[in-house]
Amino acid sequence: MSMAGGWWLVRNAECCRRPGVLAAGLTAALPAPAANLLAAVTSPQAAATSPPGNTGHFLLATVYILLIFAGISVGVIVMNWVERKVLAHMQVRLGPMRVGPHGLLQPIADALKLLLKEDLVPQGADHLVFWLAPVVVVVAAFSAFTAIPFGPTAAVSDLNIGVLFVLAVASLGVLGIIFAGWSSNSHYPLLGALRAGAQMVSYEITIGLAVVAVLLHTGTLSMQGIVRAQIDHQQWLLFREPVAFGLFAVAMVAETNRSPFDLPEAESELVAGYHAEYSGFRWSLFMLGEYAGMMLVSAVAVTLWLGGWTRPFPNVHAAGLDALFSFVPAACFLLLAGMALRAAWKMPGHRRWRVQRDGLAVFGSLLLGLGLLLAVPPMRTACQNVFWFVLKVAVFQYLFIWYRATFPRYRYDQLLRIGWRILIPTALANLVLSATLTALRP
Amino acid sequence: MPNNYVPALLFALIALLIPLGTLLLFRLVRPSRPFAAKSLPYECGIDPVGGSRHRFSVRYFLIAILFVLFDVETLFLLPWAIQFKHLGMFGLGEMVVFLGMLILGYFWLVQNGALELE
After folding, report:
1. Smallest CA–CA separation between B65 and chain A, in Å?
2. pLDDT tens per residue, range A268-326
3. Among residues of chain A, what percentage have pLDDT more than 70?
4. Is residue B116 part of a domain?
5. Smallest CA–CA separation between B94 and chain A, in Å?
6. Of B5 and A43, the one with more pLDDT
7. Please, which residues have CB within 8 angstroms of residue A134's CB and are 6 or more apart in sequence?
C-alpha cells in the first residue's frame, strides 16, 4: 500500500520536473496514477498486506475515506433512483420518467432542489440541538465504515475490535434521532423520536446476540479476521449460523427504521416522525444518514455471514473458475450497457425524444466503457473483491426496497412484541444451542 | 491511542465537515424569509396546542432500562465468545449458567408483565 502510494507521488513529481517529456509522459503517466491508485485500493498483489490505517499511512487512509464517502453518496443517489423505479414497477406505474431518460437525473434534480430550499427552524426550537441532530446521524452512519473491509487491503483501517466499533458508532445514530425529536418543539417529532428510540434499542439487543453467535466461530472481533475465518472454514458462516443470520436480517430492517418497521416516520399518523420539522438540506442529511445506515448494516451482514469480499464459492478452485469469475464484473456492466443501449434504440424516432434518446445512449456508452475497462487484465483482478462486496451489499439494498413494496407496516405494540417476545428469546436460545454444538464439534 | 484508530477520527471529521460545508456554502444561495406563521411548529394546519415538552408514557423508560440490562449482558458475552475455542467445555458450562440466569430473569420479566407493551 505504502509503496504503491509513494510510487504514484514520485511518478507525478518526475513528470512535473521534466517538462520535455511531459507530452510523451502524459499519455503514459496519466492513466498510470489512476490505475495505480485503483490497484492500491483493491489488489493485494500491488500493495502491502494490511489497510493504510494499520501501516500508519494516514494520507492514503484519507484518500480511502474520501473514496468511500463519495462511493456511498453515489450509492445513495443510485439507490434513490432504483428504489423509486422498482417500487413504481412493482405497483404497475412508470416512476420518474421526465428528468433525463427514464428519470435517471431525477435524484440529482432532487438534490439540487433540496440544496436551494429554505432552511426553516421552528419557533421555540433548541437551535444548537436542532442543528446538531442531522449532523450526528450522518457522522454516526458514515464513520462506522472505517472498519468495513471492501477487500483484503481496501479498508480504511482494520480495527481489532471491528464489529464492536461498527455497532457502537452506528448506534450513536439513535442520539441524533432523539435530538431531532426533542429539539423541534413539536408534538409529532417528539412522538416519532420516542418510538424510534425504543425501537432501535429493542432491536439492538437482537443484533448484539446474533453477532455473538458468529464470534463463537471466528474467535476475533476484527472484520478482516472474520472474513479470513470464513476463508479458513471454507464456508460462509451463513451455513453455520443460519438462525443468527435470520435474526440479524429482521433486526437490521428495524434498526434502520425501514418498512415494515418504519413506525417512527409513519406518514399516516406522525406526519414524518422525528424529522417532520426539518426542511431542505438538513432533511436530506437525515435521508443520507438513513441510506448510509442501510448500507452499513448490509455491509455488516455481508461481512459476518456472507463471506465479505470473497467471490462466491471461494472454496472451489477448479481450473478456469477463477478466470471465469474475474469476468463477471465486466459482464455485469456490459449487460447494463446493453439494456441501456437497447432502450435507447427502441425509443420513438420522433424529434421530441431526441434529447432523451441521446442521453440514454451516452449513459449506455459510459457503462460500456466501464465494462470494457473492467475487462482489461490489471483492472479485472484489481476490482474483484470490491465488486463482489458491493454486489452482495446491493442485493440487500434491493431486499430493503422489496420489503417496502411487500409488507404492510406493523402496529407499535406488534413491533415491540416481535422484538422482545420473539427475537430476543430466539437469539438467546440460538446462542446456547450453537455454543453447545460448536463445543461438541470435534 | 493506537495508531489504527486515528483514521476513525479522520473519517468522523470528514463526515462532519462535508455536510457542514455544504450547508454553509448553500446559505449564500438559498432564501431565508421566515415569518411568524411560517415558523410555527407543524400541527396539521391549526395553531399548536400546548407545549411540546410534555410527559410521555413510562413504558419508554422501562424499555430503556431493560435495554441497558440486556446490552450489558451482551457485552459480557463478547469476550467469552472470542475465547470460546480455548475455554472448551468449562467455558460452555460457565456460559450456560450465565445465560440460564439471564433467561430465567427474562421469564420473570414476562411473568410480571414488564413486556406487556400496549
Report:
1. 10
2. 667 777 888 888 888 899 889 999 999 999 999 999 999 888 888 877 777 778 778 88
3. 88
4. no
5. 11
6. B5
7. A176, A180, A275, A278, A282, A283, A285, A286, A289, B19
**Cβ-nearest to B39 among A120, A157, A158:** A120
Most confident of A211-215, A312-316, B56-60: A211-215
- Least CB–CB distance from B67: residue in A58, A190, A205: A205
| Chosen from A60, A132, A183, A186 to mutate, greatest number of chain B CBs within 10 A | A186
Q: Does B77 touch chain A (CB under 8 A)?
A: yes
And the C-alpha cell for A204? 439492538
Contact with chain A for residue B40, Cβ under 8 A: yes
Question: Residue A48 — pLDDT band, cuts 50, 70, 90?
Answer: low
Cα(A295)–Cα(A274) distance, integer angstroms: 21
Tell me the chain B residues in contact with residue A429 when contact means C-beta distances shorter than 8 Å: 103
Domains contained in chain B, number: 1
B37 in any annotated domain: no
3-state secondary structure B34-99: CCCCCCCCCCCCCCCCCCCCCCCCHHHHHHHHHHHHHHHHHHHHHHHHHCHHHHHHHHHHHHHHHH
Tell me the backbone φ, ψ of residue B28, rounded to 5 degrees.
-70, -30
- Given CB atoms, is B17 within the 8 Å cutoff of chain A? no
Report pLDDT digits (tens) over B18-55: 888 888 888 888 888 888 877 877 777 777 777 777 77
| Residue in B15, B59, B92 nearest the CB of A142 | B15
User: Which residue type occupies A242?
Assistant: P
Question: Which domain, by its residues, includes B15?
Answer: 3-29+56-111
- Give the one of B10, B34, B102 whose C-beta lies nearest to A120's C-beta: B34
Whether B78 sits inside 8 A of A282 (CB atoms) is no
For residue B4, what is the DSSP state?
G
In a domain, B51, yes or no: no
Q: Does the pLDDT of residue A158 top 70, yes or no? A: yes
Is B18 part of any domain? yes
Cβ pair A118:B33 closer than 8 A: yes
Per-residue pLDDT reduced to its tens digit, A397-419: 999 999 999 998 888 888 888 88
Helix (H, G, I), strand (E, B) or coil at A197: helix
pLDDT tens digit sequence for B68-98: 888 888 888 888 888 888 888 888 888 888 8
pLDDT confidence of residue A250:
93
Q: Would an 8 Å CB–CB cutoff place B22 in contact with chain A?
A: yes
